[in-house]
Structures are given as structure tokens and as C-alpha cells.
Structure prediction request, 147 residues.
Amino acid sequence: MLKPLLNGLWVTLKHFFKKPITIQYPEEKWTPPERFRGRLVLLCSDTGEPLCVGCGLCERICPCECITVIPTTNDNGVRTLQNYSIDLMRCCFCGLCVEACPVNAIAMGDEYELAEYHKEKSVLNTDALKAPACKSESCRAIAPESK
Ligand code: SF4
Ligand code: SF4
Prediction:
């Protein structure tokens, strides 16, 4: 009878002096681990152009059907991207689109504060998807090295 009680008190005592693993969100921000799968981002070239060539493979492999790729052809006859959009309300952050991309043009970013009051704001187009990504070293690192 006394032994289980002492065992319980010992466990409590051990944890009493450990650093808490909880944080005071939103005042304190959580730092995601390196392989965290947050909001999808479009990676860009040094000139700021998306690397996406509009092949549509990510759109086809997406199990939630939340990606829409509209390709176009530029003046030189090269296939390029007219618009890329994703509906974050439907995305399950599986990362299959990143795996499927043949040119490493997309990556799972580290952004996780994605709540919106209006669901139409969760549909992000090319500009919204590429802006923060191109400034983020972590986003650049994820796509090419994950393959
Ligand atoms: S992470 Fe998964 S669900 Fe989200 S867009 Fe990519 S393939 Fe679709
Ligand atoms: S992101 Fe990759 S897979 Fe998707 S359309 Fe662009 S090039 Fe193709």
C-alpha cells in the first residue's frame, strides 16, 4: 500500500524540477521541428520567378484536390505558370505534392498559424504562396534535400 504511494510521489518529485514543455501561446511562439509540414510554399529563382513549370503533377496527386495549376506559354514558347492556387481549408499537409514535383518547385513551409475568419481567405494564389517562402531559408532547404 505504501510502496505505490511512494512511487507516485517520486515520479511527481522528478517532474517538479524539470523545465515545463508547455508554452504560453500565443505570447510565446512554437518553433517547429526541421521536418514540420506547414503551409505549402512556392520556391523561386534568384530573380523571384516561381520555379514551377505548370506540369500539374502536384494537382493530380493531391488526395484532397485542393491544388489548381493554370499553365501558360511565354513568348519563347516555354511552358510556364499563369497561376497556382491552393485551398488550405482542404489541405491535409500530407506532402505528396512536394514529393511529386519533378523540379523541386514547392516545399512544405514552417507556417502553422493558418486560422481565418472567412474561408475564402484560405485560398492562396501564386503571390501569396511565394512571398514568405522566398525569404525563408528553411523553406529553401526542405524541397531539394527531401528527395
Ligand atoms: S500537402 Fe497533400 S493535401 Fe496538401 S496540397 Fe499537397 S498533396 Fe494536397
Ligand atoms: S509545383 Fe511542381 S508538380 Fe506542381 S505544377 Fe509546378 S512543376 Fe508541376
Observations:
- The chain has one domain: 30-135.
- The domain at 30-135 is CATH 3.30.70.3270 (Alpha-Beta Plaits).
